[in-house]
What we know:
By secondary structure, this protein is mainly α. The protein has helices at 2-36, 51-90, 95-120, 122-132, 138-162, 164-170, 175-187, 189-207, 212-235, 240-266, 282-310, 316-354, 357-384, 397-423, 426-429, 432-457, 461-485, 489-499.
Amino acid sequence: MEKGNKQPLLSSLERDEDKLHSLSGRVTTTTTSFFATFKADSNDIPPITGVRDFFREFYSEFKKLWYLAGPAIFTSICQYLLGGITQLFCGHISTIAQAAFSVEDYVLGLFSYGAMLGMGSALETLCGQAYGARHIDMLGIYMQRSMVILHMTALIFMFVYIFAEQILNLIGQSPEISKATGKFSIWMIPQLFAFAGIFPVSKFLQAQSKIMVMMVISAVVLVLHTLFSWLLMLKLGWGLVGAAVVLNASWWVIEISQFLYVVSGTCGRAWSGFSWRAFQNLWGFVRLSLASALMLCLEMWYFMVLIIFAGYLENPKVSVDAMSICMNILGWAVMVAVGLNAAISVRVSNELGAGHPRSAQISLFVAVISGFLMGLVFSLILIFTRDQYPSLFSKDKQVGDLVSALTPLLAISLTTDSIQPVLSVAIGAGWQGVVAYVNIACYYILGIPLGLILAYKFDMGIKGIWWGMISGTVVQTCVIFWMIYKTNWNNEVSKSCKVI
Length: 500
């Protein structure tokens, strides 16, 4: 009897052991497959073969990335809050003042800001890879070329500001909003030329990891900006004129301070003075700048559409104000992602220039995880305070109620847009042209048409437009993620040599 029971028991144990070996084999295969994506560098750096190796590399890259990302995020938020603080004070002047500032800042301002920031972002590829390859003397030349091109661009955009009222009337905006925006835009022309200097100098400093000085300058300017905005706009009653004076002055102080830091001798070989070489090979530089501008503008102008279409709805002043508040909050979170993007672009371009493809991969992995977690936290905060935070931006109850109703969509956008700028590592790797085509397809062929169908065919209003645009963003994020997953990073190292 005992012998008869042993055979079934042994068979059962053998089957369990076989299942355990099979499961262990699948886990091992999956783990090996995951770590295999982080291949060894071509310069004899050992491969990652297990969890301990991976977390060692992850932690090491986490420290390097956040050494840049922390100050870069703080700088981005401070600079973005210059407009946010101004909008906050405009909301306490009048509804039309807030609408005029919103249209100027989120339509005209975003148009010029996106184009010029995008053109300046070409330096993230050129300066970053040159610094990684130890071609330090080229950084100053690249910066000067970018400044020449951006000042010429500012001259062109100046006419958009001059004829802002006519342009807004032409596209069907409210005459009252168009007139107020047109007057305010003329006052904001000096800001264009401040951008033309700030962006090249910022990218020049970022490539060398000189982020702390930018952070200090931006923080000091933000404090002064808040004080003088209150004084001129509310206390002295200058209104929108006061907003323009303080905002222009703040951007110019940032530009002058950063440039004085560069020419003071703190950048070593990277700055050896003005050179006629800045005017050489301008066309090749213009092409990369235009590709960078197109890639970034297609992303930033995408959300400009929400403000424009809000002006076509019933009660346009309330719709524009509510949407501008949502875009302001989204902008704060996106600035965190943009700061993280600046850091990851520096890390990727530096590592590609130095011939370290695996380090570039791990940097991107760390940045994506960080961006997702931050976006999730921001979204939850908004959901839990949806009935309280709108009153910080406007005294109008209709505006506040609409902002509260739009908060779930805002939370979804926060999460996706905290990942998407980080994935746009194209800036550091030189993929700007390819990503521009992806943006056109996902944003303007899918997202906006779908949003208009939902808004007008299914009577969903501004929510329908937003849902369509979220769909475009999600698809774009998935496409770029797939591109990065399929990338041969060793080939990117070879391409970086050609860029320089």
